[in-house]
Amino acid sequence: MSDLLFGALALMLIIEGLLPFISPAAWRQVFARVLAMSDGQIRFIGLSSMLAGLLLFLFWR
Q: Which residues cross the membrane (predicted)?
C-alpha cells in the first residue's frame, strides 16, 4: 500500500511541476489570478478538486 501512495505522490509532484518548468510566466499569471480570488472561490476549487479525485479513485478500480 505504501508503494502505491508514494507512486501517487511522485506522479502528483511531476504533474504539478510541469507548468512552472514549461512556462514560468504562465505559472506566475495563474498565481496572480488565484491571489485575486476570494477565500470562498479558492475553497470551492479545492473542494471540487478533492471530489473529482475521490470519484476518480473510487471508479478507477
A: 42-60
pTM passes above 0.85: no
* Domain range summary for the chain, segments of one domain joined by +: 24-61
Q: Is the pLDDT of residue 48 over 90?
A: yes
Looking at the chain, how many residues does it have? 61
Grid cell for residue 4: 502505491
pLDDT higher than 80, residue 61? no
CA distances from 12 to 5, 17, 19, 30, 37 (A): 11, 9, 12, 18, 24
Q: Which residues contact 30 (CB under 8 A, 6 or more apart)?
A: 19
